[in-house]
Amino acid sequence: MSRRPVAVFALAPWAHRDVFPPDLVTRLRQLVDIDPATTFTSFEGPAAAAALAEADILLTGWGCPRIDADVVAAAPRLRVVVHAAGTVKARLDPVVFERGLVVSSAAEINAVPVADYTMAMLVLGAKRAFSRARRYATAGEDTPRDWLAGDGTGLHDCTVGVVGASRIGRLVLRRLRSFDVEVLLYDPYVTAAEAASLGVERVGMDDLCRRSDLVTVHAPALPETHHMLDARRLELLPDGAVVLNSARGSLIDTEALTRLCVDGRISAILDVTDPEPLPPGHPLFSLPNVLITPHLAGAQGREVRTLGEFAVAEVGRYLKGMPLLGRVEPAQLPYIA
Questions:
Q1: Is 16 annotated in the active site?
Q2: pLDDT score of 28 more than 60
């Protein structure tokens, strides 16, 4: 009798519970042998060593320990890592690929709520909803509390600059087709023909900043993208522009952004910051033209089970010899978010 594949959970207990609820664990156990109650956040110790020695499949996620040469050496049967979360960049040593392991990530699934968040914030940001709501709530007796004129607001007929045709960036581009907007794209890896197929105008970063009413950032954190929105480029933005960052905080120069937001020349919507979190009392927290959310754009609450559904389906595809929908190639590792 052939041996059934053995899988091991390696993710934080809260993620284990939320990403893999009981019905998904039941579905998973139809495919593999797995201890449904055990998950590892460290590969140190005899229990982890025993589990790694038998594992054919690692099911990882938020809180997973790094998979390095020692882990690979301790797991001679390991063939595939299925990551039930977004990026695997910080989780994998390149030795994983050198050993010939297959890696899959649910990044495409996690991209969906980020794109939805982005569109919601673009609509609200274009209406100046956050600053106008603050003014409405704090109006004094002599200040009108009813309708406030929305001159120059609204997403209609705006120019939206999208920085990065990443998974999330492409989903945002697709959603923007439903709006009457001009869309600019900066991505040095996108050809003119590809930009045309996406229905956008490919431009340089400076040109995007000069022309955009709203700028939304969807690029990875790399040495060459550090502070890509620096003081000089932020100064290029038109008066009243809105900057939205749901990617990585290091892409924007926080000091320069703060200065322009304090002046009231531009507004910002930030789901990520640099540093993250910002220190208590940071000026950005108190500005009426700035909204900061606590890195919540990705899968949250009811959304996280979609990551588990994807991971279980990937295990099924792998065992049937089918292509993995979330496969991560070695050459992608340095450039993903």
A1: no
A2: yes
